[in-house]
Amino acid sequence: xxxxxxxxGARELLRRVLDGGGWTSWDAPPAGPDPASPYGRELAxxxxxxxxxxxxxxxxxxxxxxxxxxxxxxxxxxxxSIGLATADRIVAAVERATAEGLxxxxxxxxxxxRMQEGTAAFVQMARITGAVMxxxxxxxxxxxxxxxxxxxxxxxxxGSLGHVTAxxxxxxxxxxxxxxxxxxxxxxxxxxxxxxxxxAAKGLLDAVVGIDDLAEVASGALNVLCGTPPAQDVQxxxxxxPVDADPRETAWxxxxxxxxxxxxxxxxxxxYGATDVTPLSGTGQGEADPGLLLALARFxxxxxxxxxxxxxxxxxxxxxxxxxxxVARRGMxxxxxxxxxxxxxxxxxGAVLSAEAEEGGLAGEIARCLADLITLPAPALCLxxxxxxxGAALALLPADRVLVARHGWLSPLPPEGAxxxxxxxxxxxxxxxxxxxxxxxxLLRGGLADALVDERPDAxxxxxxxxxxxxxxxxxxxxxxxxxxxxxxxxxxxxxAL
Length: 498
Hints:
By secondary structure, this protein is of the alpha/beta class. The strands form three sheets. A seven-stranded mixed beta sheet has the order 1-2-3-4-5-7-9, sandwiched between helices. The chain has a seven-stranded mixed beta sheet with strand order 10-11-12-13-14-15-16, with helices on both faces. Strand 11 and strand 12 (302-309) form a beta hairpin. Helix 14 runs parallel beside helix 16 (362-374). The protein has helices at residues 10-17, 38-50, 84-99, 118-122, 124-137, 152-155, 178-185, 196-201, 211-225, 234-237, 251-258, 266-273, 311-315, 322-338, 355-359, 362-374, 390-394, 415-423, 429-436, 440-445, 463-478, 486-491; strands at residues 24-25, 56-63, 66-73, 104-107, 142-146, 150-151, 164-167, 173-174, 207-208, 275-280, 292-299, 302-309, 342-348, 380-388, 401-405, 451-453. The protein is elongated, with a radius of gyration of 26 Å. 40% of the residues lie in helices and 17% in strands. 51% of the residues are buried. The chain starts with 9 loop residues before the first helix and ends in a 7-residue tail after the last helix.
């Protein structure tokens, strides 16, 4: 550890994160300038001060038994700056990780480009980015852990390309170094902006994680990102449940049950029914929406990306908006890139109705979610967990397999709104719900859903048991599931007219 700044050096980080503190170096001695030149003398002093021969260490080790590759910055070596030799080392490590099919952990801590090498060093960020994207294109996980500080070109290239991105508590993270800003502007940069916790709240980072918790968090994410669903015959895996065990129950009764404040939602589903849950925050591009939950998780033996509408957040002042749908599309992209199954959870009273949502492109985001799901190259499963109102519900519906809770439902508008349109009063909402065929039995009978997740008689009265039952149905539904393709996904909706 650096006694002056309190920063953890590269070797110490590896010791605390990798199994047994051991690792194998991939580094070759770097080429450099004339040792007698001013820059050569700076490099020699940096080597002596840091105990490293360059600003990054690369290699491989074991993380909870899993073989992984790493690129870790050493800030004490010329502020972790990236020169030509540094870039050569990073690119060689990324390319080797790609060739050997290894997940890659990057832990930058850098002031950015090495000023002593100027433009030649500056453009290396594009080269490093190309290597990282080739690694991602190979379907291999890329995890990033941003350390104090990470600024400049490093943050604007390989520091911002992770499938999952976490940061050290209190870390300074930003594009513009505060010292440069103050020197150019004559005033300090606003406090509290370039801090890990603030960036996580803004949807730029997924989590703030202490170094001693990093192994557990990274291992949990890799258990999902590197997993494959169990192979199993789908028809045998998902037994058909009678579509309407209680024909006396009306659509309106299901709607009222789905609106109970104590009904379990996607958070309870993950708490009681999933393992290796890694929440992801926001779009990764500066937007977040509490109404939409994005996570990596395992349901039994089945790993997946979960995109779920959070009923409590939506009911408590955070209705789903265009930013939430962009978060959902991040999850779809993640599933597509890593060939992971996608699980969407529909549970929404409807999208936000506001001028801001209109100007933020709500309709366009619904359309793009539909387009992404219809064309998704990964398997997709939808769970209609509760309320299913309007375009916000439709945006997460298209899938290869659709499960529906007994009191889940799907409607173009809240029944009260449909009643207002047809009858000019909300008083006939129950009648409209029955006429529109919104309940689970109707969806199953019409082929819009494939299997029922029972409630006995109401999920709110048995939250843990219901969530475990729903999770088991998700695992069974994912077993052996393959992407059917756009034509098959569309065919589900080729229905007869009323």
